[in-house]
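Problem: given the chain below (404 residues), write out its structure.
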Amino acid sequence: MRQNKQKKIFLRTTFDLCDNNGYTTTQINNFFIQNGHEVIREPDGADYIVISTCGFDQDREQRAYDLVSGYIQHYSDVAKVIVCGCLASINPELFDSSKVTLIGSRELYKFNAIFQPRINIEHISGGAINGRFINSGYGFLDAYYLQICQGCVNHCSYCAIKKAKGDVKSKPPEQLIAELERAIQSGYRRVMLLGDDCGSYGADLGTNLAELLNIIKDYEIGININYIHPRQFQSAYPLLHPRTLERIEFINVPIQSTSRRILDLMNRPYHANDIFEIIREIKSTYPNIFFETHIIYGFPSEARAEFQDAFRAAEYFDSVIFFYYTDRKGVSASRLAGKIPTAEILQRTKMILDHPRFRIQRGNDQPPVVLLGYELETTDDIFISIENSLPHSDFVSFDRRSSS
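Solution.
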């Protein structure tokens, strides 16, 4: 395949608090560099402007859209604009196809057709993640990111990522082990297993995550897992070799709610108390494993008491990260009744900020910690973000100093 002449590429991500986005943007960056193109730090003079997007929620979508719109306005007459990543799949109608080229999360092969490379992008890894594309306080920059799968076997009612990435597509174990061995030879002593749901790994290959982990245990490397669906976590745990558990350093198990009623509406078939019991059991023997979880608050019809009950997660997890719910286009949860008013979302956000284990208030990183899954330069930023993201007209005023 004949390679085009060197191009100047400006590449950036719209969101640096996502491991998957950091991996993919690094992979794209490496694709350009390994094929002889120049990746520049400013858009002026670029032949191509490539923007890797996140569409996890309405806030991420709006930020990505505003950023892309600015580049189109200022540079589309002199450079070609490529929008890639989740938002390009979740809501492609946002963008004028006459002004941008869209490349979805599972369409990276389209870069090959555009740039006619010597090395195709599917043969390039983003495992040595580039610190330009992930927040240093969020990513595991000393770990090798081993992307084991994309997509998942789940059908969560609120999830737009499923729309972007579809059913699980796993990499063969032998391919992963070969990549892991190269990473170890390069000096890595920690590996981050990466997937939209690592627990879905192998469902398309006749294997499973536990079998992969039990192979990796024989290598001198710490194991980190981001993410594993609680149902798959329940299934994998009894199959793990004790030596595997000795190797594990970090696991993110996003329970999303402690309410069985809300979990049913989310189409997530497990009981939070069962997950708590497994974590308690693991911690009794392997206390150094760091467990992290996510909670979605303000899900349609969620009562205040159901929200408050989720704080129990801090009794079991070392880190609990809260995300406020927003409707996403084309997902079934958006059709549920009982949307939570904006003022109530803001009140619950204040309750999270007031939690005694909230990290910023305590100035203390010792677990357990309670966090918000958003960038917080000042406390007001999150309230402004919520007010702008939720499509409700009920917001009149909110006294952020008031007690809950």
